[in-house]
Amino acid sequence: MPPMARRKGKSQQRIKDWRQRLDGESDSSESSRQKLAPRAVKLPEWRRDRPDPATLEGLPRREGMVVGLFPGGAMVRADHELLLCGLAGTFRPPEGASALAVGDVVSLALTRPEHADGNTGDDKDRADGMILARAPRRTALTRPQPRSGKRRDEYDERPFEKVLAANMDLLLIVASTRQPPLRHGLIDRFLIIAERGELQPILVVNKIDLAEPDEDVLADFQALGVRIVLCSAADGRGLDELRAVLAGKQSVLAGASGVGKSTLINAIVPGAEAATAAV
Q: In this structure, are residues 89 and 81 in contact, taking their beta carbons and an 8 Å threshold?
């Protein structure tokens, strides 16, 4: 029998088998490969412990702020406690921007009753809570996501914004007088980003112990209504004014490498211990 005829015969047999299944008949002669059987899937223990969305209603709730991200979840600070949280199956963030970002306010369901009492020992395979929803963002520090990214559909024309930080009040644009020198164009770009995200920009000129800032450059930014703070993280000048500006505000820092962002954080936030390096 020609090969084509054999393949045609098998095709006809499959059609006959499916008709028998639909009619409720059985054929003991059919091969085991043609029989349908449920596939057994072995789930790891931590996945079996993950709560079903239908059971989340009875779990205790909290609100918190996202302070860190990892694939499939986030670190959330709630009631002065850090919680390792996954994403609930019912979590549906708005489209067009990052689902979660540092600074987002989220509602949580604690996955185990004992966590409501603060008993959260270290366990790499356990989620302390499940993120149910995200509150609307007041402000957003964003940048456009490139269309050439491997996770983007090249034919999708809808704009997408990569959110770097959400709900911040101030954007501290850190520059320095020397090492490296102040870059007027870069500061202009940060001012545009702050305007788009509805953040208040503050220009922080660091390293005034090395050289005095250019008054003409400062005058350009003052004419735009930008508040300027001159300081030195090395000798402490201007730090009291900077602390007063930051009091009661949520802030994010931006600036070129080497301008002293980490050094300023260490000078203002006790115990921060941000990594620094010589320029």
A: no
Find all residues with CB under 8 Å of 182, minimum gap 6, and list them.
Answer: 175, 176, 205, 213, 214, 217
Can you give the pTM of this predicted structure? 0.70
Strand pairing class (170-176; 140-144): unpaired
Could you tell me which of 217, 194, 197, 193 has the C-alpha nearest to residue 205? 217
pLDDT in tens, 155-201: 666 677 889 999 999 999 999 999 899 999 999 999 999 999 999 99
Q: Does residue 131 sit in helix, strand or coil?
A: strand
According to DSSP, the residues that pair with 170 across neighbouring strands are: 200, 251
**Per-residue pLDDT reduced to its tens digit, 199-214:** 999 999 999 999 999 9
Contact 204, 172 (CB under 8 A): yes
Measured in residues, the chain has a length of 279
Quick check: 106 pLDDT over 60?
A: yes
Q: Would you state the structure tokens that stand for residue 34, as one six-digit string?
A: 């043609």
DSSP, res 262? H
Whether 201 contacts 229, CB under 8 Å = no
Q: Which two tokens stand for residue 13?
A: 């047999």
Rounded CA separation 203/199 (Å): 13
DSSP result, 18-79 = HHHHHTT---TTS-TTTS--PPP----HHHHTSPPGGGGGGS-EEEEEEEEEETTEEEEEET
Q: Report the C-alpha gap between 83 and 118 in whole angstroms.
A: 10
Which is it for strands 81-87 and 129-134: parallel, antiparallel or unpaired?
A: parallel
CB 53 within 8 A of CB 89: yes
